[in-house]
Amino acid sequence: MGKRDTGAVETRPPRPHRASASRGPDPSDRSLTTGGLIAKTLMLGLVTAFAIWAAFPLIDAGSWGWLAGEIVVVVVVFVVYLRRPLPMKYLLPGTLLLLAFQVAPVLYTMSTAFTNFGDGHRGDKREAIVSIQTSSVTQVEGSTEYTLSVATRGDALVFLLADPDGAAYLADRDGVRALPAATVDGGRVTAAPGYTLLNLGQVNARSQEIGDLRVPTDGGVIIASGATRAFEAKANRGYDAGCDCIIEIDTGRRWTADNHIGSFVDAAGERLPQGWRVNVGLDNFQAVLTDPDISRPFLRTLVWNLGFALASTFGTFAIGLLCALALHSDRVRGRKLYRALLVLPYAMPSFAMLLVWRDMFNADFGLINRLLSMHVDWFGQPWTARAAAIAVQLWLGYPYMFLVATGALQAIPREMTEASAVDGASPWQSFRRVTLPLLLVALSPLLISSFAYNFNNFNAVYLTTEGGPFPADNPSVGATDLLITYTYRLAFGGAGAQYGFAAAVSIYIFTIVAVISAVSFRRTRKQEEVYS
Amino acid sequence: MRIRTAGVTAAITLTLLASACGGSDDTATNDASARTDGNLVIWADDKRTEALRPFAEQFGTDNGLTVEVQAVSKDLQTNFVTASQSGKAPDVVVGAHDWIGNLVQNGAIDPVQLSAAQQQAFSDLAMQGVSYNGQIYGIPYAIENLALIRNTELAPTAPATIEDLVATGQRLGTAGKTSEIMALQVGENGDAYHIYPLYTSAGGSLFGVKDNGDYDPKDLGVAKPEAVEAFKKIAALGEKGAGALKRSITPENAIATFTSKKTAFLVSGPWALTDVKKAGITYEVTPVPGFAGGSVARPFVGVQTFYVATKGQNKVAAQEFVTNYVTRTDLAKALYDAEPRPPALTAALDQVASSDPDAMAFLEAGKDGTILPAIPEMAAIWDPFGKAEAAVIGGADPATAIPAAATAISDKIK
Amino acid sequence: MKRWFTRVGWRHLVGVSAVAFSLFPILFVISAALNPLGTLSSTELVPTGATITNAVNLFDRTAFGHWYVNSIMIAGTASVTAVFLSLLAAYAFSRMRFAGRRVGLLALLLIQMFPQFLAIVTIFLIFSEISDYWPSIGLNTSWGLIMLYLGGALGVNTWLMKGFLDTVPKELDESARIDGASHVQVFFQIVLPLVTPILAVVGLLSFIMTINEFLMANVFLTHPESKTLAVGLFGLVAGERNNNFGLFCAGSLLTAIPTVVVFQFLQRFIVSGLTSGAVKG
After folding, report:
1. Mean pLDDT highest for which of A365-379, B188-202, B311-325?
2. Which of A141, A299, A375, C90 maximizes the CB count within 10 A of its CB?
3. Which domains does chain C have, with CATH numbers?
4. What CA–CA distance (Å, rounded) separates B414 from A287?
5. Tens digit of pLDDT for each residue in A316-336?
6. CATH of domain A137-235
């Protein structure tokens, strides 16, 4: 596509400085004004200063990967602003942010489509094992419960325990020993010669150490529970690397690791809840295609989704443009007031207003039925629900189009419309011939991006109809479901979030939207080039 | 054989040591230095944040820590799991007990160790709620369930059955005193939580129970013929029947319908009382009535729970806070005063009961209740079940709607 | 009379109908905000009572003041920066021809079509790393959130502005270049003044978008005092059903105020006659 662009430019009369602008250092750069030079130096200086500030924590933590990334960014900035072609100078700042906070997350999320990432499969295998073991720690049956006072001897952390009879013990990595010298008061060790007792704040500061301090005993280990109690515990389940399995000590039951699904599974096929994340290749993509709940209603949902996006985009555009045209005249008094009131729907928090609208469409209590003296079950029937969803979106979205159209009308040189009026054209003709074509040049990219936005307008549906009404025989896809609300239910509606699967669905949807947008985008080129 | 088992035990204990240390080394090297400020962070939803803040801060002052209670308004559970995954978890989370299954499968919470005496201090129902796979995963602090809240001016006697209720409601309607028979929120897409008492009274169930008392996700109650039968009874109350259940009664307007005296009956939880009192309505709280000749109506019982995050940076303080501070009677009482939900601590409940009959009334209404299943599979139930309910109440045939919901649920559970 | 109608009257007719359409759901909110019971009463459009308790409670019982300041700070900074960044990009896309131009534009559009709720986990991971190294721009900070929003700055805005820049005749800047102006001078001195109305519009639009953004802010901000209006207000109704609805409505109305003020301020740029003058030259 890039090549063709160059072609398009070359059909135009060549302009020497323009050509050089896109092909190498810009000659006018060298004739920079002093002010410009100072500004550039300042900016690059700031970048350097910022980079140095940012580098210290990275060096501190030894995060060489991040540091390398940072250096690359700084080098790119310098190269672009000192040498590289002109367009990059304008594009770079926004692009860097875009790459960091949109492109990178999206790509990474897309990559999870090839994994079983989701609830129960979030971390790695080791985390799963640790979690399984920790969850199986119980108090050794019939063992003593101690009160705990955490103390230090020198710098070493020790537990001072008291049993229910008031006997005191010293417990550390070497085991438990009696400590008769300690003072026990109210069932707890309150003082012991040679030891410094810690208060909760101090104890908490050493949470890590305390969690790691396990005092060996015959039946298990003594561990702290909070800062004031300790008990003898044992882990009932453990990982055995030999069989790559989890063994339950009481029963001898085994769950063997299945590294394809990321779970420990026993002979009967039952899984332990804690699993880990594994690569599943194209499984998710295949599942989308073979799942009848997805493939069957897909086409219908897509058609409605397109219809919703088109109706929202062009409906808001039509209303917005009409209002903008109506107020685009010096003869209208109170224009400022009109404009201020018209943008109010857009100024109110949209989720609040969506909830209000939902209430207004209520069949029995809603304002709309009462005003119209009807009894329509708006959200209960497919077509009325669709109409309602679009109506709400028109209300929410037209101030946006109104603002944009107002701006666009202002930008059209008045001479052009006046000239056409002088030629004897009626206002409608001059609108058709002069104003509208110019507006479309300015606004067609916007219409495309607005279409894209509405195509994925999650809130508009989720906060009003929630995708409903749902046919009685299929609770998974509703009449007003957009692909995105549908994906959302797939991702979060099941037994825990299934990010990997939802990412695969998203990639399919993404591909479809991309094709549609790319095709309509090609059509805008004609306009763009005709105008310029 | 004996020796071998012992050997395994030793080996396992060792791995426990090693992996626990290793695990924590891994996740915490960066943060340990960043957060030794002793800043205990608690996440809760907005309501509970408000109630908890003064007490949590008191705990901090008493112990030389700073404690911060932060409200996460939406998707608290999901956000907590996400934060855990990246090592930015809070130290304590407050949420419903039915999160346990999901939090455990994500390794986000630790079991808590309560002494026998401490366990006995809580009501059985509450302990049942926080137990999962033989462990206790959190400290219960309040119990909540649905009950029937009745406007005693409009309906002086409590209905014994749902049929009684409908008859009274219809009579009030004919007399022009109210416009709705009752306010039980349904909404366009149903509400499984609120319909559940009637569903159970009509003979429906959610899961079978395994030998050890845990729910068995493979044994799905919605897939049984009893579920269809139950929904036939519910359909008779619906829009094409008595008109007692309507999709136009939504979460947004159910309580308001009651407080504006458009109906004499509201099925809701303790959270509704704030509004009911504000509206100056004389009311009584009684159990949700069941169908005449049916089983007893069992509302879901939810237990508000304090969890200790596995990846928190202040675990000792968190455990201390949860096991020894939250379990204090005076705190439970104070929390009740801030937000009236029956306390899970028996002693606190007794204190509350003497001054406030509502707490006991709600507890009474929940005594036959079903503890909300904490297994992760429960998450797959809500949505399809609710939609089937809405469809049936709107007039759809239970014989198509319920099996469709059952298929959708079992597809997700797999 | 007929003449009056075709010239002016219809304009008022459209204006009045549009205002009515715009306002009637908002009346509902006003009614609830003034309702002493503060519940969502689904039937009353006209206020059933008048009290300012809701607004007072909002400041007493919540950190509303903090939310307000945060929102204005975040939305203000992010929108001004976003306008500048996207104007730069739009200028390049409109005026220059370079390899990858159309692909770049298309990519800008497409990247936004990926569902954000899936990317939240990743974004959280990225920012939790950032918090480890640079806590001042990490989670729970306004700066981090602003950076995140700026990542999306190029998206919609660039498209919008490119469309407008395309309508500014290229001959203008080309003749200026022949006169010896540098491209920076052309940009700041010739193009920028010509597109003031659209800068104002885009500024307003991104201000509104930012101030209403909820999804990211909810994950990002948990400190009660670092929250934004959207997150804080949602919290009022998110808890148990509807008993905070009056507070919520009062808050929503107050939230609209900065937007209206910004709009009033920008209106003169939007409707300024600057353009027609400049084109003559």
Report:
1. B188-202
2. C90
3. 1-51 (no CATH), 62-280 (1.10.3720.10)
4. 13
5. 999 999 999 898 877 788 888
6. 2.40.430.10
